[in-house]
Specification:
It is built from 8 helices and 12 strands. It has 322 residues and is α+β, with helices and mostly antiparallel strands. A 5-stranded mixed sheet has the order 3-2-1-5-8. Strands 4-10-9-6-7 form a 5-stranded mixed sheet. A two-stranded antiparallel sheet has the order 11-12. A hairpin with a 4-residue loop joins strand 11 (272-273) and strand 12 (278-279). It binds copper (II) ion (CU). Copper (II) ion binds next to loops.
């Protein structure tokens, strides 16, 4: 018995260590009012249900000690402990949860960001400024931002645990809501609804920046990048078209207007490649272009059998697009 208990305690402690570590995607480290409300609800439920569990174990223990004695107790105890108290607790939990849900009503928002889920990446549009990017959502700190989300294929779910609750991305139906980050930082999000083979590798970042920095970010991205002048970059630009990348990708200011994959207009300034899968470096980019299937098996970008000098030229060109 005591060996069993020791094992149980060890397992529980091990499980708790999973809650430590990185907090970039932890709903227990909220940085917005709505995430704080959700975390508050979570702690409240943990406390209540922890109390219930404790009470049940105490009763179980008492029951075990009374084994062998003649039966006693009363019907009243069973009715109170088995019906009235549980019903009361459930009603309290329901009321508190409903109040939280009502408090999470979306705010009007100062501007709109559209997020469109694709298998297995996120298209991000700022219609006010004509900016299109992917897998990265820049927002100003302390401002409510209106979000409109939908899906280009199957149902996805948009979730940044430190900022807000989950919201479904549905084909053909636009779901509006709002987010607000109260502290600058990078907050990881993740698709929260199974959507196919690479569902687990459908991540993204919300980058919350001070309003002035955000304005500068917008100013740099509303214009397409300058056409390449450097011969090495022109080589990369031409190789991009020769390799048919433009069939699926758009680069504003060029003839590439593909819609199947992420917009690459400002790829050089993005933090990650493949929806949060690998850091955006020149080496990783070459690896991705040559064989995206090795990094994210089953994703919708095919392998490319390019001569090394073309591969290098394309990657250098794309990294120059800031
Ligand atoms: Cu998804």
């Amino acid at each position: 018995m005591s060996r069993f208990l020791t094992l149980l305690v060890i397992l529980l402690v091990l499980q708790l260590t999973a809650c430590l570590g990185s907090d970039t995607q932890s709903m227990l480290h909220p940085v917005s009012l709505s995430a704080e409300r959700i975390a508050g609800l979570w702690w409240f439920m943990l406390a209540v249900l922890g109390g219930v569990t404790l009470a049940v174990f105490v009763l179980l223990f008492l029951g075990m000690r009374l084994r062998g004695r003649p039966p006693g107790g009363s019907t009243g105890f069973v009715v109170a402990g088995g019906i009235i108290v549980p019903a009361l607790i459930l009603v309290i939990l329901l009321v508190v949860a409903l109040r939280t849900t009502v408090a999470l009503k979306p705010a009007p928002g100062t501007f709109t960001i559209q997020v469109i889920g694709h298998q297995w990446w996120w298209e991000v549009r700022y219609p006010e400024w004509g900016i299109v990017t992917a897998n990265e959502i820049h927002v100003p700190v302390g401002m409510d931002v209106r979000l409109e989300v939908w899906s280009a294929d199957v149902i996805h779910s948009f979730w940044v645990p430190r900022l807000h609750g989950k919201i479904d991305l549905l084909p053909d139906i636009v779901n509006p809501f709002s987010i607000r980050a109260d502290r600058p930082g990078e907050y990881r999000g993740q698709c929260a609804e199974f959507c196919g083979t690479q569902h687990a590798k459908m991540a993204f970042l919300v980058v919350a920046m001070p309003p002035a920095e955000f304005e500068a970010w917008v100013d740099e991205r509303r214009m397409p990048p300058e056409p390449p002048a450097d011969p090495a970059l022109i080589l990369g630009h031409d190789a991009f078209f020769e390799a048919q990348c433009h069939a699926c990708h758009a680069i504003r200011g060029t003839a590439a207007v593909g819609k199947v994959g992420p917009d690459l207009t400002h790829l050089g300034s993005r933090l990650t490649l493949g929806a949060g899968e690998i850091p955006n470096t020149l080496g990783n980019l070459q690896g991705w272009i040559a064989n995206p299937q090795a990094i994210k098996p089953g994703n919708l970008m095919p392998r490319n059998y390019l001569p090394p000098k073309d591969l290098h030229a394309i990657a250098t060109y794309l990294e120059s697009l800031k």
